[in-house]
Structures are given as structure tokens and as C-alpha cells.
Amino acid sequence: MLNEQLARARMSERLGEAQQLRAAGSMTRARRLSRKAERAALQARLALARAL
Questions:
Q1: Host H or E run for residue 41
Q2: Angle at the Cα of 14 from the Cα atoms of 11 and 18, rounded to 5 degrees
Q3: Which residue among 3, 6, 11, 45 is least crowded, i.e. fewest CB within 10 A of its CB?
Q4: How far apart are CA 35 and CA 37, in angstroms?
């Protein structure tokens, strides 16, 4: 009975860790995408400035 409760507690702990890691991964991806978007916007502004 006690072992079962311990196993459940450990499992939910691991699940929580996995979810946190996944959230951190998506934050990293979002940051990378926003940096890429900022770079693209800068390139577009430079191209527009050159065209004028």
C-alpha cells in the first residue's frame, strides 16, 4: 500500500517535470521564432529603405 502511494507520488512528480521541460522547450521555440520574425522585419525595412 505504502509502496503504491510512493510510486504514484514519484510518477506524478516525473509528469510535472516533463510538463515543465516541455513548456520551457516551447518558450525557447517561441523566442527563436520571434527573433526570426524580428530579423525578417528588419530585412524588409532595409530593402524598403534601399528601394526609396
A1: helix 2-51
A2: 140
A3: 3
A4: 5
User: pLDDT tens digit string along 1-52?
Assistant: 778 888 888 999 998 888 888 888 888 888 898 999 999 999 999 998 998 8
Rounded CA Rg of the chain = 23
CA angle 14/10/18 to nearest 5° reads: 5
CA–CA separation, 7 and 15 (whole Å): 12
Dist. CA 8–CA 6, nearest whole Å: 5
Judge if pTM exceeds 0.70: no
Which cell is 14 given?
516525473
Residue in this structure with the C-alpha cell 518558450, named with its chain if needed:
27
Output the pLDDT for position 36: 93
